Known about the structure:
By secondary structure, the protein is an all-alpha fold. It has one domain. 52% of the residues lie in helices and 0% in strands. It has 6 helices and no strands. The protein starts with 16 loop residues before the first helix and ends in a 34-residue tail after the last helix. Residues 163-167 have low confidence and may be disordered.
Amino acid sequence: xxxxxxxxxxxxxxxxxxxxxxxxxxxxxxxxxxxxxxxxxxxxxxxxxxxxxxxxxxxxxxxxxxxxxxxxxxxxxxxxxxxxxxxxxxxxxxxxxxxxxxxxxxxxxxxxxxxxxxxxxxxxxxxxxxxxxxxxxxxxxxxxxxxxxxxxxxxxxxxxxxxxxxx
Length: 167
């Protein structure tokens, strides 16, 4: 089965994006206010438990190991390794299977980065980060001015888009 990048079946119109962002920020500002009043900030820092992705990550790791073994023996990765030999002193320390693993792992990291950027664009388009940063110049929790805005991506990491300093 080949990979197909998700496409939003119900895209937001350009005119609807400012209101959507405004509603989104207002929603989390209410949660931040409740957190500040109660002293319980846990809802603003919820993370997916590692165990929830354990099987997927194990499967990806196993697939990467299998692909590296195969790639070290034949194909474009093998050709690349042959064209880029190691110094004699390193050959016994870096077998081709490990070098193939590293090359494929790097390709996977680049793919993950591209797909993560795609998640940014899924709802609000390519300028979503700039649009979110422009919505506020203060921390939702402390009210302090922010020089640097840190975004949490509700789709990508499951947390609200808080702008925060260390609390």
